[in-house]
Amino acid sequence: MTELPVPALSLVALIGISGAGKSTFARRHFLPSQVLSSDAFRAMVADDETDQSASAAAFDALHYVAGKRLAAGRLTVIDATHVQEHARSTLVALARAHDVLPVAIVLDLPEEECWSRTEQRPDRSFGRGVLARQSRDLRRTLKRLNREGFRTVHVLRGRDEIEAATIRLQPLYTDRRELAGPFDVIGDVHGCRSELETLLTRLGWTISRDDAGRPVNAEHPEGRTAVFVGDLVDRGPDSPGVLRLVMGMVRSGTALCVNGNHEAKLLRKLRGKQVTVSHGLAETLEQLDGEDGGFVADATAFIDGLVSHYILDGGRLAVAHAGIKEEYQGRASGRVRAFCLYGDTTGETDEYGLPVRYPWADDYRGPATVVYGHTTTVDPQWVNNTICVDTGCVFGGELTALRYPERTLVSVPAEREHYAPATPLATTVPERPGDLLDVADVLPGSGRRQLDTPYGRIPIEAPQAAAALEILGRFAIDPRWLIYLPPTMAPAPTSKADGYLEHPREAFDGYREAGVTRVICEEKHMGSRALVLVCRDEAAAARRFGVTDGETGAIYTRTGRPFFTPPLTADLLARVRAAVSAADLWAALETDWLLLDTEILPWSAKAGELIRGQYASVGAAAGAALPATLDVLATAINRGLDVTALRDRTRDRATNAALFTAAYQRYVRPTTDLTGVTIAPFAVLAAEGTNLATNDNGWHLSIADRLVAADSTLFTRTARVPVDLDDPATTEAAEKWWSELTDAGGEGMVVKPADGLVRTARGGLAQPGLKCRGREYLRIIYGPDYTTPDTLAGLRGRNLGRKRSLALREHSLGLAALDRHAAGEPLWRVHELVFGILALESEPVDPRL
Amino acid sequence: MLTIGTTYRPATDLGYLLVKHPDRVHEFELPTGRATVCFPEADEARCTAALVLEVDAPDRRAAPDGFSLGRFVNDRPYAASSLMSAALNKAFRTAMAGRSKDRPELVATAIPLEIRIPVLRCRGGADLADRLFAPLGYDVAAAAIPLDEGHPEWGESPYVDLQLRGTVRLADALHHLYVLLPVLDDAKHYWVSTDEVDKLVRAGEGWLAGHPERELIVRRYLAHSRALSEPALERLAESDDLVVADSVDAVLPADADEDAPSLAVVRRAAVLRVLRESGAQRVLDLGCGPGALLADLMADRRFTEIVGVDIAPRVLAIAARRLRLDRPGAIAERDRQRIALVQSALTYRDARLGGYDAAVLMEVIEHVDESRLPALVRSVFGSARPGTVIVTTPNAEYNTRYAGLAAGAMRHTDHRFEWTRAQFADWAAAVSAANDYAVTIEGVGPADADLGAPTQLAVFTAAGGNA
């Protein structure tokens, strides 16, 4: 039995003349879906698998499908004769285009045997001459496969060998996703053996030494694995010492090491190739001269065995010397190796003669964390989930390790400048390129975009995304501040109580149905929703949000617009900041910034134009029209005309119109700039490293109360009543409280589960809140006359399903955005979700709900 | 409500003219509610007919596809509008047609009429009511109604109490009201179908052609077209408690420059000249708006690939219509192949915009918040990197030449800033230095010796050519 090793991700070309048994072989060794057969594609495009005139179209379609499979990282087997060079070269090119290895498996069966098989097949009508020609082509083929670019070639001769062969899928050398860490990823060492020892010790490693006292191995008591990003050698004082230690660690399984460009060059030199001795290679060669021949041979073999990159921890971590883009991860090709060694070079050089590199990390959108070195930076920064840990030790900087999964950096300083840098080490990073957002991050390529969150998969439709792009692009604040948008909130199920559309009873029923027993009723302030993001100082703004122009936070509306002008925002933030300090919340929440969910009062402060243009206008029109009509009707009645029914209806409408005017007037208060403006906070959504939105609602209000206590002029308290849904006394008390609140002109209340994040019995999220609006307030929403029995009866048929679904979808995106921000994920990952919330908000759902 | 009275003797002949018995109550069903006609006074000396409209609550009607709160809470049940026109047409159809079985001679006679509409939305102010009705022979009294008596600081509402007095044939008066009520109202929820044109022609017969405000009347009567509404955007504006602007006004950006039309032409000519000089063939129009420059580019075959980019989908739809891309076969296929319209936001990078010879940002940057300009610069100059970038923007110094522009005001409500020549030059220099472009700046339009030209134009040329 012959076992044929085949790389688990490769493009396999089956080669053999007609009748050699390729399809049978493919069926036996591969999944049907892995095999693309030219016959099947001929049938697909021409209804006849033997129609040779359809071959061009069939192969076109076949290559297209193969390309899709390879792009997705799936093993693909092509079942065609492949006896002609042009057919094979197309496959090699396809494999290269997707950075997978081309593999050839040749089934070499005597022509006689093939002919007899072919004759037995009723659907084959070609002559013996065709087979003879194929056979001649195959003979030529066999000699050329390696030269044509096939990296693995298996030739099976005769029926027995073919029958006996089995396929063994081999993971790529780079694929070590079974290793889950924890890891210490160590930056470019460049011969700084002493600093490496110090760093390993600092990280808790125990170093063992040979008789000469030279470090030869290290292990970590907690079983951590070191991963070296390459460039162990050159420039520094003891490259052999570094090699000795790392080789020992790799051999004993406590370390992995990827290839660096300096190793690659050293290897060429050690193998006697002509290389320019520069960039510190001379130092290494000189140091190696002092080593014995056995060590040099070991080192040569070690370097020769280094792979371009590693995929670790189930695919969540990738390590390569100069970085690796998503499409190259777990792939193998010349350009993948070049990218891993040298980065995305443009071929140009800069004023210092150094290669110009394309900033691939700006574009990185992959899910795997990428840790790399190669480019010296003073201050390692996360850019789109990638980080460079080369902090220039050999140039007098530091030697740095990234602890994974902790994602913390540990550095030791260089003992001295071992080698003069070609360019001065940069001391500042002017802007974070990871902040660059791409339209592809938010717009669906076609149809819809799916957003995956821990709370469900949320689709965003193209027209909604288009509307969101316009609003965010034209009006929104800097996306770095925009880490969240508030979800819409569903109303309580429609009430059947006489004269009411919404009532606490149904809100309570709604939560009982969801299995919730403890809820909290919170006063719903009638103002304008505002998110207040406040940093303790400019340093926090720069550190956490990358904002360095002096802004220390943002106050924005539910569609991401600035609430106030920049100077007013700065003023108000200063007052909020003072209150947060006075309430000692920085320390209590261990943070230097906070995101508050609030209502800014009064409504007229922001909605003045709307109130005047819409609500007051309706009130004015009604207030003038209805009395005039009543006058005319009174005169008509005096003449004995029977218009009393019309008069009565008109009188009712006049009463309702007056109530309508009174309803909006309650939410109008004179304000000038910030004078008269107050903030009613009701939730603390996020602080450093944590999503607080899911905390219990009592906690949220207790923090809000501390702010009110600290500055009761600026902050307005949110009244609340806790309710045990199993205790009629508390539900009745809450109903009474709601009636008093709304009779006094209040908008209503929001009923929330006391526990914050609650899942229903079926596993979905429960509504985070149900609003229960007052009878008079709803006049503004449903129109002055909505309380007439007919209208109310009609409105009771309102459909809440879409609104409830929308509320949950937006809530899911909001929570996930806060999660991602807390986890330090790249801006685009947060932004795509925030963008999604705004897109959903443009869905056509009854706006009165 | 609307009342029509007369002091013609016998005044009760009004009942014959309107074909309504003054001692009865007449009710009519309308598609959107109910109309009642009754006569509060009817004697020899005075007779008055009242038309009272009751508009149904909107949710009894079929649900409209575009939801917005304004559909549910609005002035339609209270203010006279196109609904009143429809009611007039229904209740007084015979009178409007100028027929009367009982008083055929009176139909042709001008009689003293008093018309009152207690609440009429009068967009453009009470003065406009005078301009529309006075030329038709009426004495016009239009009293403004306060917005909210509890808030005198809010001033007047958009409504007037309109009283008309004149000696006019009744059928003519009804036609005047039929056309002019919706024109004064000018509501955004009033949609026009093609047969509205015919209706206007019929109802305006004999008086519209000679009316001094003829153009305004026709424009407003036919102004609002459904294709321009944008329900998704209306919803987003509403969820932020913002006023949903009348769609037409919001869409078509108009310069406040008094010489705007000619300046826009001069500006486009300048941009085209620079584009031609640059030798560009593949061109981006970033922030193309309704497509005026795109049309010019299409007219010149040297531009082989033209991409219009705008952030607003409905503006791109207008551009498509203007360029006749919305109807298959309307332009030659090889011209169709030269142009594409793309929605994008310039503060985001867009790979689709890479590799062009030239990009035009004509009157665009001033619509972006100054704090967001670095993001625009990064995506245009850093990422798309066209060989040539042409940027035009207003010269703020020149604004003092516009008498209609208040001191310190900007030329357009959506402008986030307007720069002096020094400010623009500083920005251009910084952008070109940071992104490896060379820049030259020129003025466009009639230059003032001290203030410069009204428009500034910068040409950025990439150092290494198209990168």
TrEMBL record, chain A:
Residues 467-844 form the Polynucleotide kinase-phosphatase ligase domain. It comes from the Bacteria. Keywords: Kinase, Transferase. Transmembrane segments: none annotated. One of its GO terms (cellular component) is cytoplasm. CDD domains: MPP_Prp_like (cd07423). InterPro entries: Ap4A_hydrolase (IPR050126), Calcineurin-like_PHP (IPR004843), Metallo-depent_PP-like (IPR029052), MPP_PrpE-like (IPR041780), P-loop_NTPase (IPR027417), PNKP_bac (IPR024028), PNKP_ligase_dom (IPR032380). GO terms for molecular function: kinase activity; phosphatase activity. The keyword Transferase applies. This is Polynucleotide 3'-phosphatase /polynucleotide 5'-hydroxyl-kinase /polynucleotide 2',3'-cyclic phosphate phosphodiesterase. It comes from Asanoa ishikariensis.
Automatic annotation (TrEMBL), chain B:
Keywords: Magnesium, Metal-binding, Methyltransferase, RNA-binding, RNA-mediated gene silencing, S-adenosyl-L-methionine, Transferase. The keyword Metal-binding applies. Its cofactor is Mg(2+). Residues 1-237 form the Hen1 N-terminal domain. InterPro entries: 3'-RNA_MeTfrase_Hen1_bac, Hen1, Hen1_N, Hen1_N_sf, SAM-dependent_MTases_sf. Signal peptide: none annotated. It is an enzyme of class 2 (transferase). Its EC number is 2.1.1.386. It holds the Pfam family Methyltransf_23. One of its GO terms (molecular function) is metal ion binding. The keyword Transferase applies. GO terms for biological process: regulatory ncRNA-mediated gene silencing; RNA methylation. It catalyses: small RNA 3'-end nucleotide + S-adenosyl-L-methionine = small RNA 3'-end 2'-O-methylnucleotide + S-adenosyl-L-homocysteine + H(+). PANTHER family: HEN1, SMALL RNA 2'-O-METHYLTRANSFERASE. Belongs to the methyltransferase superfamily. HEN1 family. This is Small RNA 2'-O-methyltransferase. It comes from Asanoa ishikariensis.
